[in-house]
Design brief:
441 residues, 4-stranded antiparallel β-sheet, Aspartate Aminotransferase, domain 1, 7-stranded mixed β-sheet, Aspartate Aminotransferase, domain 2, globular
Length: 441
């Protein structure tokens, strides 16, 4: 491999090198005031920018990326072949297809319902196929509007908060707390088994909840999710449940919020083929909106979401949906599970490595992320120190909210040899007796 190239290749936009400010003639159109409230750059492009700067400083460095959660293992051949065959058929009169249903291919909707929701009686008509769960987060924000109040886990995936800021729900940013004034931050940590204390959590209209959680890797237990559903029912709230990492659950933790009785009346579930099937670049996901879920006036939420989808989306790629169907075939599903097991073994190696260094490590069992604690340290400093001394990319925990200020997130989405190499670099540095994080306090 050529020197100066990341061991986990990724596209780094040229615009990250230089951000030239416009100096031409201004229009009379004001900037969206909500966009002005966003803090700094979006987390993952910022990390890519810092990686690029590091490579400019150390052009011969072999950087290992354990940061952005991009999958690295090839898509199983039978799945990629199904997409290739579909694409080739588009060049024939019989195989050509144009627009499909905005809600998704009926066969795929049925396969998703039968594969993931058979035991909870979700109908295929309640499944909406999309181009990924992150896109669906924004569509749900359009559905909900700017007047609702929201709660998020702290730490949590930054897309929930940033989309709330853009739509106008968040209010002003508070420098002192590192929080937006109109967002309720539900603190997660080892002190509460990574589940919020709902007895002191104020009522909000919407609760964003991810399990297994990104970034902590914690999968909520059945008892915890029962408490969450009961809390939502008592308060008349709607849960937006993100199950993008459910395939990594190894124990008896629920893989869907709809395994909890009563959840269909208070929850929407979003999920994705990205981390489940390696579709990060293919782009395919889904959202489940139960018919039982109603707005305060009794109008079914599913009808409005259907209108949002039909207005703002022309449907997922037919080629990607052909791949999705192949993923859910018996052979495809088995092949995907083997890849998931590969990443889970990577996670175990990382957990063991950080634990051997005497650090507190969480996650890595039911999720492809490892959450490492550095008490009294700032996460961006930890990120910078690890990058400078080991050429390893991580993710600073504060990028997921103030609750991540003393943590870093490590991704297990990597080649095994790179995971082992990263572990060796950390252990080698530590074994020399050097204080690995000597300038973090």
């Amino acid at each position: 491999m050529a020197c100066g190239i990341s061991l986990q290749p990724k596209m780094v936009l040229a615009s990250l090198r230089v951000r030239k400010q416009g100096n031409g003639r201004c229009t009379n159109v004001p900037r969206n005031v909500n966009l002005e409230k966003l803090q700094n750059n979006y987390l993952f492009p910022e990390i890519s920018k810092r990686e690029l700067q590091h490579l400019e400083k150390y052009p011969n460095a072999k950087v290992i990326s354990l940061g952005i959660g991009d999958t690295t293992e090839p898509i199983p051949e039978q799945i990629s072949l199904s997409m290739a065959n579909y694409a080739r058929a588009l060049s024939t009169a019989d195989g050509y297809r144009g627009y499909g249903a905005e809600q998704g291919n009926q066969a795929l909707r049925k396969a998703i319902a039968e594969t993931f929701y058979k035991d909870v009686a979700i109908k295929d008509t309640e499944v909406f196929v999309s181009d990924g769960s992150q896109c669906d987060i924004s569509r749900l924000q359009l559905l909900l509007g700017s007047k609702v109040t929201i709660a998020v886990q702290d730490p949590s995936f930054p897309g929930y908060i940033d989309s709330s800021v853009i739509i106008g729900q968040a209010g002003d940013f508070q420098d002192k707390t590192g929080k937006y004034q109109n967002i309720e931050y539900m603190q997660l940590g080892p002190q509460n088994n990574f589940f919020p204390d709902l007895t002191v959590t104020p009522r909000t209209d919407i609760i964003f909840f991810c399990s297994p959680n990104n970034p902590t890797g914690h999968a909520a237990t059945r008892k915890q999710l029962q408490q969450l559903v009961e809390f939502a029912r008592d308060n008349g709230s709607i849960i937006i449940f993100d199950s993008a990492y459910a395939a990594y659950i190894s124990d008896d933790s629920p893989k869907s919020i709809f395994e909890i009785p009563g959840a269909k009346e208070v929850a929407i579930e979003i999920s994705s083929f990205s981390k489940f099937a390696g579709f990060t670049g293919v782009r395919l996901g889904w959202t489940v909106v139960p018919e039982e879920l109603l707005f305060s006036g009794g109008f079914p939420v599913i009808h409005d979401f259907n209108r949002i989808v039909c207005t703002c989306f022309n449907g997922a790629s037919n080629i990607a949906q052909a791949g999705g169907l192949a993923c859910l075939s018996p052979e495809g599903f088995q092949a995907i599970c083997a890849v998931i097991d590969y990443y889970k073994e990577n996670a175990k190696i990382l957990v063991d490595t950080f634990a051997s260094l005497g650090l507190e490590v969480y996650g890595g069992v039911n999720a492809p992320y490892v959450w490492v604690h550095f008490p009294g340290s700032k996460s961006w400093n930890i990120f910078a120190e690890i990058l400078e001394k080991t050429h390893i990319i991580t993710v600073p925990g504060s990028g997921f909210g103030p609750g991540g200020a003393e943590y870093i997130r490590i991704s297990a989405f990597g080649k095994r040899k790179h995971i082992i190499e990263a572990s060796w670099r950390l252990e080698k540095l530590f074994s020399k007796g050097k204080p690995l994080f000597n300038c973090l306090k």
